[in-house]
Amino acid sequence: MTLKINKIGIFGKPNNNNLADIIEKVFFVIKNSNPKIKIYIEESTAKSCSIKDNHVIFDTKVNIETINTLKDSIDLAIVLGGDGTLLGIARQVASTGVKVLGINQGKLGFTTDLDVDALDKNLSPLIQGKGIIEKRDMLDVSIMRKTDKTKIPSSIFNAPAFNDAVVSRGAISHMVELDVFINNTYLQTIRGDGLIVCTPTGSTAYALSVHGPILHPKLEALTLVPVAPQALSSRPIVLPIDVETKIIIKNGRGTALHCDMQTIAELQDNDIILIKRSKFPVFLLHPKNYDYFSVLRRKLNWSSNPILAGLPDPKLPK
Asked: Which of 59, 72, 83, 313 is catalytic?
């Protein structure tokens, strides 16, 4: 699929004042690839790098706008940071279908494909529309609660989740008790430290550290992963992405709900957490040679063997 790009927004990790040189590199590559493209820098990113409106980079005037303005006008969001930065930006631009491209400034970088040292080689083809667009599902997460004025639970909190929605006990609280329903059918009651509901993208995040399965991003699925369950038989389960998951808080003093570990809400007994597929997916832009299995090998250090260091990957025999 060829992506026609007329306007690009550059977004960085909040309060990171070390991005000025990378932003200049990005400007240089974009202008050499297609001088007609209009480039914007997100307001807080520009402020962190002391870049002001009408500042000139490589004979190009800088345009500074807020993310709320940019998401309605740009074709591509270039994110300078790690997975967490990309998650935050992707959630905010998903509703308008903006494509998202990550330049890794973090640690693992499962979703940030490009390396700063190879921008000249790897970014230019993407700017020219020669890339792979991949759709990734998000979750829509709500907390439903009865109040003194309402007999029917109503929403008191709503947030998207690109990686996961996590119910976790507080720092000094006891185990949580959660009743889990799938499409209004009882699944199980979990007693433990919490529960993770994750997308395929989130299967290589927190869920992976508590022995959840890795889901290929092309799967239309989600995973429920108990965290330190009391019952050893309580295991992760993979479900279709379009199911509706309800989690009832039964013994939840001190517990909280986290969406992508960025949005937080405190929970009460009898709260209902409603999780369903978001109608707004995220569209990631990858290089033509993007290979998910290669990403897993590199990021998770699979096939690590000093004897094989530096050798090419094995080929399938003919």
From this structure: 83
- Residue 83 is among the residues annotated as catalytic for this protein: yes
Residue 114 DSSP code: B
Name, in order, each residue with C-beta under 8 angstroms of 40's C-beta and a sequence gap of 6 or more. 7, 8, 9, 10, 63, 64, 65, 70, 74
Helix H or strand E segment including 92: helix 83-93
Lateral strand order in the sheet of 164-168 = 237-240, 221-227, 194-198, 164-168, 256-259, 263-266
According to CATH, the topology of domain 139-277 is: Tumour Suppressor Smad4 (2.60.200)
pLDDT tens digits, 13-59: 888 888 999 999 999 999 999 999 999 999 999 999 988 887 888 88
pTM of the predicted structure, to 2 decimals = 0.93
Fold of 7-137+281-308: Rossmann fold (3.40.50)
Task: Yes or no: say if 267 and 255 are a contact pair by the CB < 8 Å rule.
Answer: yes
Domain extent listing, the chain: 7-137+281-308, 139-277
